[in-house]
Amino acid sequence: MDIGSFKDEKFEDNLQEQRDEVFALQSIFNTDDEEKLKILSEVTEDKDNLFTLLVLICPKPVQEAIQVDVVVPAVVDEDDEELEGAAAAPPMNEASSPPSFANNIQLSRSLSGQRWQGSFVVKFLSPMNLLVTFPPTYPSSSPPNFHVSCEWLTPSQLEALESMLQSLWSEACHMPIIFTWVDWLENNCLSHLAITDQLMLRPSVASHDDMQETS
């Protein structure tokens, strides 16, 4: 689909709004001590290229702390797929170590012997990423192209967040939207996903190194 070019004068107002928005976002999110916004590309003086931004977002927990439950396969085959059935489980008295990322987590074997499981408590979760690119038609007629990524959320949860961001854009009446998106993700995404005091991490998302444990 042709998104147009800033060399077309009809997008001049959009370009100015985008530049103003990027400048405002930098002043809000970047300080001497912290840089939450990174500009990956920007429109040149010749009006080539597009603005692409990466925003690091730290969701605020609903409760003071979150219990993270970890479930990790104990046995995998050559293709790293979890084996099924009793034959896949090693004898319970056979020496076996939990995954390397879990050195600081007390894990126990499940009754079947096929999984390691355990839990730990965190006060903060690792940041999620919001990647956005401004087409020449933004904000007058179309939203930014965007993608949300996060190591501790499932694909369906990420899809739910992106659907909500699209709804927020629809309500914005073609106004600059990035601050609204970031603010909503910081303050509302966990409650929107019903993550209050407990979070389940399965193999595809479990990564203790990016969590900050409580003392």
TrEMBL record:
Xref: InterPro entries: RWD_dom, UBQ-conjugating_enzyme/RWD
What domain of life? Eukaryota
| Boundaries of every RWD domain copy | 20-192
Q: Which residues form a coiled coil?
A: none
Record-given protein name: E3 ubiquitin-protein ligase rnf14
User: Could you tell me which species this protein originates from?
Assistant: Plakobranchus ocellatus
Lineage, broadest ranks: Eukaryota, Metazoa, Spiralia, Lophotrochozoa, Mollusca
